[in-house]
Design brief:
- By secondary structure, the protein is mostly beta strands.
- It has one domain: N-terminal domain of TfIIb.
- About 0% of the residues lie in helices and about 40% in strands.
- The chain contains no helices and six strands.
- The strands form two sheets. It has a three-stranded antiparallel β-sheet, with no helix packed on it.
- It is globular and about 40 Å long.
- The two termini are about 20 Å apart.
Length: about 60
């Protein structure tokens, strides 16, 4: 089994400034837990980040 190449990222929501951790290569749309706005849209590899990347984890 190949190693996982994706990383987790901490994203700050542009609408409400909530920070949350998400996978950088999502298969579904990632939304903010606080306000529901879209944070990451899957694009066949790395997701298109709509918020601000605060930190890369792992």
């Amino acid at each position: 089994m190949p190693p996982v190449t994706g990383k987790f990222i901490k994203i700050k929501c542009a609408d409400c400034s909530n920070e949350q951790v998400a996978f950088a290569r999502p298969s579904t749309v990632v939304t903010c837990h606080a306000c529901g706005s879209t944070l990451i849209v899957p694009k066949g590899g790395k997701g298109q980040v709509k918020g601000e990347i605060v930190e890369v984890i792992g």
